[in-house]
Specification:
31% helix; 5-stranded parallel beta sheet; alpha/beta; single chain; FAD/NAD(P)-binding domain
């Protein structure tokens, strides 16, 4: 594995999102001095927090899977996830509601899910589910260590017996066809293939290997941190500060000061320069390229995932049919993906993710109130409406979404809203996301694994990238891995106390620890 050349005693990490915090913890565990600079006034990045009229709103991801990856970062400094964050396992992980009025609770326990599938679609589909679950588990084992949790220096690293195992499992076929080998019911097939949208590819075009995301959602389990998703980066920042990391909040990196092929210092907007031996850039790829002074040359322009419109609504009521996470599918399917990824149209029959975090933490809203997060995928600004067009389009589309929610059984939703925050591709663009998409570079074959933007920077021997735009990709689990892989590039793979046994946090464990001196606690 290629690593940073020369001294690496002091590392500056640009960005205090999940990847940057994971990187910082692994670097600290390997004995490095770490300074984290963050343009915002606290940790989180995409997983940020907004306060609105007594509501505590997570601005980024709402679904937490694979918490042992976060625990691994804490373990690197001899700490643990469950000392900082109280997690609750969600049962069901999701509730799927369909246009025909049927609904299915998605359980991660195999026996519970088999019984639910039998109730929903009969014994043949239940048997197919058991076979599918076994296939997902084998697919995950074939991919995780060799193709996801690894630093690629060359495509030739793919030439390994695990590649043959992945091929034998059908990983290079099409996702929807492979899922269809196990399940005939089109509703069930959606439950195990909609995750391809996270990768920015329609199920009909996605590699079956991307079913590993369905494994994370439907087999490994879905969790909720008390205090919302923002509790995770806050706890990671606390642990890093307690271990000696220096955090510089409201400090935007504007330049990398170089000497030859090494960066010697990171200059801030204030004019201050922080000298360093190595730099890890976890900001958005366009921002990283601006700091580097160039973007790497690629034979084909990068393609980005679809974007999203998110309506955060604080309400005076809720609806008993909603679970913590509810997938509300429209009748359309193939056409929906075509609109999102090819024609650039808004979904004519939308599929929505509705999250109600106050299901498990009423303290995120004022007494007697509820918080709802409605995510509607939409085309990115490369193929759909421009960011500027969303200035007028956003409020109109918001009204369409609210009307659609009421048609789907959330009667009185419009009148229940007390506070709201609407986020559109215009806002994502303003935050620096390329193509107005918070889901970054899509996972086409040409942008996956060794073909994804590398985390080492050609021509600079002490700069590393981390985050969803680089290896291994988009999503909370993968950006945590990204931070660990970036730290490994600095330390030569020695990224912490590797003998510590890591595990998912237990239900009912202790909440976020008190803020350490030097850490920022936005609460």
């Amino acid at each position: 594995m290629r690593t940073v050349a020369g001294p690496t005693d002091h590392v500056v990490v640009v960005g205090a999102g999940l990847s940057g915090l994971a990187c910082a913890l692994h670097l600290l565990g390997a004995g490095r001095r770490v300074t984290v600079v963050e343009r915002d006034d606290g940790p989180g990045g995409r997983a940020g927090r907004v306060r609105l009229g007594g509501y505590e709103i997570d601005t980024g991801p709402t679904v937490l899977t694979m918490p042992h990856l976060a625990d691994e970062a804490f373990a690197a400094v001899g700490d643990s996830l469950d000392r900082h964050v109280e997690l609750t396992a969600l049962h069901p992980a999701y509730r799927a509601c369909f246009a025909d009025g049927s609904s299915l609770d998605v359980h991660t326990d195999g026996e519970a899910m088999e019984a639910e599938v039998r109730r929903f679609a009969g014994p043949a589909e239940a048997a197919g589910y058991r076979e599918l679950r076994d296939w997902l588990e084998r697919l995950y084992r074939a991919q995780m260590r060799r193709f996801i949790d690894t630093n690629f220096d060359s495509p030739f690293q793919l030439l390994h017996p695990d590649l043959a195992r992945l091929a034998a499992l059908g990983g290079f076929g099409r996702l929807d066809r492979r899922i269809g080998r196990f399940l005939a019911d089109p509703r069930l097939r959606r439950v195990f293939s909609f995750q391809a949208l996270y990768a920015g590819v329609a199920p009909a075009r996605a590699l079956a290997a991307y079913a590993v995301i369905a494994y994370m959602d439907t087999v490994a389990g879905v969790w909720f941190p008390k205090g919302g998703m923002h509790a995770l980066p806050r706890g990671m920042a606390n642990a890093a500060a307690q271990t000696g990391a220096e955090f510089r909040w409201s400090a935007e990196a504007t330049m990398l000061e170089r000497s030859g092929d090494r960066v010697r210092a990171v200059r801030l907007a204030s004019g201050e320069s922080i000298r360093c031996d190595a730099v890890v850039l976890t900001c958005e790829l366009p921002a990283a390229h601006r700091l580097l002074g160039r973007a790497p040359k690629r034979p084909v322009r990068l393609r980005h995932s679809p974007s999203s419109v998110v309506l955060h609504a604080g309400t005076d009521r809720t609806w008993p049919g909603l679970a913590h996470h509810t997938l509300s599918f429209g009748a359309a399917w193939e056409r929906t993906f075509d609109q999102l990824t090819r024609t650039g149209e808004l979904m004519s029959d939308p599929s929505l993710l509705i999250t109600r975090p106050t299901t498990h933490d009423p303290g995120l809203a004022p007494p007697g109130r509820h918080l709802h997060y409605v995510l509607a995928p939409c085309p990115n600004t490369d193929v759909g409406p421009s960011g500027a067009e969303w200035r007028d389009l956003g409020p109109r589309y918001r009204d369409c979404l609210v009307a659609e929610l009421e048609r789907r059984g959330l009667d009185g939703f419009a009148d229940s809203v007390q506070e709201e925050l609407l986020v559109t591709p215009l806002d994502w663009t303003a935050q620096g996301h390329a193509a107005g998409s918070p889901f970054s570079v899509s996972h086409t074959f040409a942008q996956t694994g060794p073909f994804r933007p590398r985390n080492l920077v050609r021509g600079l021997e002490n700069v590393v990238l981390a985050g969803c735009g680089t290896t291994p990709g988009v999503g909370v689990p993968t950006v945590l891995i990204s931070g660990k892989l970036a730290a490994g590039r600095v330390t030569g793979g020695r990224t912490g106390i590797r003998h510590v046994h890591t595990r998912p946090a237990r239900r009912g464990t202790r909440a976020v620890a008190p803020t350490a001196e030097g850490a920022h606690d936005p609460s």
